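Morning F.,

Quick status update on the modeling queue. The single chain you submitted on Monday has been processed. Sequence for confirmation:
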Amino acid sequence: MVTLVTTHTSALDETTREAVRALLFEVFPEMTEEDWEHGLGGVHALLRDGGGVLIGHASVVQRRLLHAGRALRTGYVENVVVRADLRGRGHGAALMAALEEVVRGGYQLGALCAADDAAAFYAARGWLPWGGPLGALTPRGPVRTPEEEGEVFVLPGPAPLDLGGRLECDWRDGDLW
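Structure tokens below.
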């Protein structure tokens, strides 16, 4: 029997936090300390097998995305992972369903940056690929981030969107999107 719980970063005990970190670094060899940090400070969905072993994780953190002259309170999905040998069993969908509920209940918009092999998964869940130019507000001013175009997906909420318009993210260390 698999169990799913959601909790805030502040409620993660050290053992759980280390299990999440270990799973992410095991599954994603390109994972960095900055990537790990990006998923902290928000709500985590934790999936455990019948023995209590962590088999999946995803988190949503608050970010500000700028679009059409507005700063949108955005639930940004990070660190989505399911143990490699357990994929294709609906675990990723369960994690995302929990976070989508958080996004719809607390944010004007949902957003994420999808790996190439995950784009179809998010699209099937109703996430829409952003079709317009992307950028970031950096300490040196706004910059374009064309390398992420085609990888950013949004889950529309109450805020009006022009999916072909410019979308800019707030600054953070490491990957901006």
